[in-house]
Amino acid sequence: MKLPTLVTLALVAGVAATPRIQPLPEAAWTDIHRELVKSFARDGSVTNEFRTFLNHPDLVKGALPFANYISGESTLSPRHRELLILRTAWLCRSEYQWAHHAPAARKAALNAGELRRIAAGPDARGWDAFESALLRAADELHVSAFVSDRTWNALTVRYDTHQVMDAVFTVAEFTMLSGVMNSIGVQVEAGLTDRLPAGVPYRIDVVKSDERLIGKKARIDALDPAQWTPEVRAMLDPSGSGRAVAAVYRTYAQHPKMYAPRQLLSEYIRLQATLDARTRELLIMRIGWLCRSDYEWAAHAPAGRRAGMTAADVEHIVAGPQTGADALVDHLLRFVNELYAEDSVSESTWQALETRLNAKQLLDLLITTGGYRMVSMSLNTFGVQLEPGGERLPPATR
After folding, report:
1. Which of 31, 58, 267, 375 is the most exposed place for a label (fewest CB within 10 A)?
2. pLDDT-derived band at 325, boundaries 50, 70, 90
3. How far apart (Å, rounded) are the C-alpha atoms in residues 160 and 157?
4. Is the dihedral of CA 167, 170, 176, 181 positive or negative?
């Protein structure tokens, strides 16, 4: 019998204590930066997180719309949104996200005892059954990139399709953002006094599961073209070409309000980021492998080969970092492993990559890896089915 996954504070030793990328000071802002602040700073607040992203204006335009949607525009109630964000911040050991969202949680009528109980987890005495299930979903996504049938069924008793999709993406988005903040060492601003609760053991009572829904019934169906509303058609086939649309997009289109900002992030990573195609696909394939996402592998293993990967390169991605001839590949694979396992990139790995890559590229490494961990969580949990002939993860994963 497997024991619950118990995680200790030793996992967060790699969180950067000082900024590895400095927030851009206002004195260095151009008209472009000021326009970005005007367009995307929530409530006009220019945080250290936002100032760090200002080092990479294209990233702001690609990533902030979805972050803002999840933070304040989704279909979740403020209370449930902050429950999920704070549990994710606790799981990722993100002091920064906790400091920012504890005040928002209090505005959503969460009291001091409940904030501490979020850290204690879904089994802490005092939660009702539904809020316990919400917290458990965060734990399961963190450990397994998948929400179990029991937890999914508990959520869908009260949540409709839009709400349950937003719940999964809230955990996924803040897992990405927490990993970025931890790895860069973004500092909490003066005046924010909340910190991760002290004296609460760091414990996740979830058994890691490789259960997936490939070949079974999807939990959220991909929309067939006959079901497309004019709004959905404009999103999925704006030119009216009649082309086939992948199941992932037809699934996300079940939630049009969420689809548009999430698609901006996807298109940024795939089409606009500073990484070359081979590096991008290496990161996506490795995080897909770690998250046991067949759909992600099926989409990106062929893309990796188109970017010049050989069979040996693919085997290297599957095997993970080694001491070999291609040191850069090993550093990149170690980067992904650390971000996945510890929600932070170690000092040694960061330094190794910092000698080869600039600040924009380092930010893009974090967003690409975290962004596709997010995609894996949603693909696995929604049960998005493979395209015809889709290539599954190599047999060694099963």
Report:
1. 31
2. low
3. 8
4. negative
Number of C-beta neighbours around residue 225 at 10 A: 13
Q: Are 379 and 74 in contact, with CB atoms under 8 Å apart?
A: no
> From CA 307, how far away is CA 289, in angstroms rounded?
18
Amino acid at 308: G
Q: What is the pTM of this model?
A: 0.95
Q: Tens digit of pLDDT for each residue in 209-242?
A: 999 999 999 999 999 999 999 999 999 999 999 9
Cα→Cα distances 14→181, 226, 240, Å: 12, 50, 49
Over the range 99-127, which residues count as b (16 or more CB within 10 Å of their CB) and which as e? bbbbebbeeeebeeebbebbbbbbebeeb
CATH of 268-397, one of 1.10.8.60, 2.30.110.10, 1.20.1290.10, 2.40.50.180: 1.20.1290.10
As given in the structure block, the two tokens for residue 30 are 């151009």
Contact of 168 with 378, CB cutoff 8 Å: yes
Residue 136, Cα to own-chain centre: how many angstroms?
17
Other CB atoms within 10 A of residue 135 CB: 25
Residue 15: pLDDT band (50, 70, 90) is: confident
Contacts of 128 (CB under 8 A, 6+ apart): none
| Secondary structure of 232-266 as H, E, C letters | HHHHHCCCCCCCCCCHHHHHHCCCHHHHHHHHHHH
Q: Within its chain, how far is the Cα of 57 from the centroid?
A: 20
In terms of C-beta density within 10 A (0-12 exposed, 13-18 middle, 19 or more buried), how is residue 332 classed? buried
Taking the CA atoms of 366, 367, 370 and 373 in sequence, report the sign of the dihedral they define.
Answer: negative
**R_g over Cα of the chain:** 20
**Where would I find the H helices in the chain?**
31-40, 48-53, 57-72, 78-91, 95-107, 112-120, 129-144, 149-156, 161-184, 230-236, 247-252, 256-267, 277-290, 294-306, 311-319, 327-342, 347-354, 359-382
Q: 310's torsion region: left (phi>0), alpha (psi -120 to 50) or beta?
A: beta
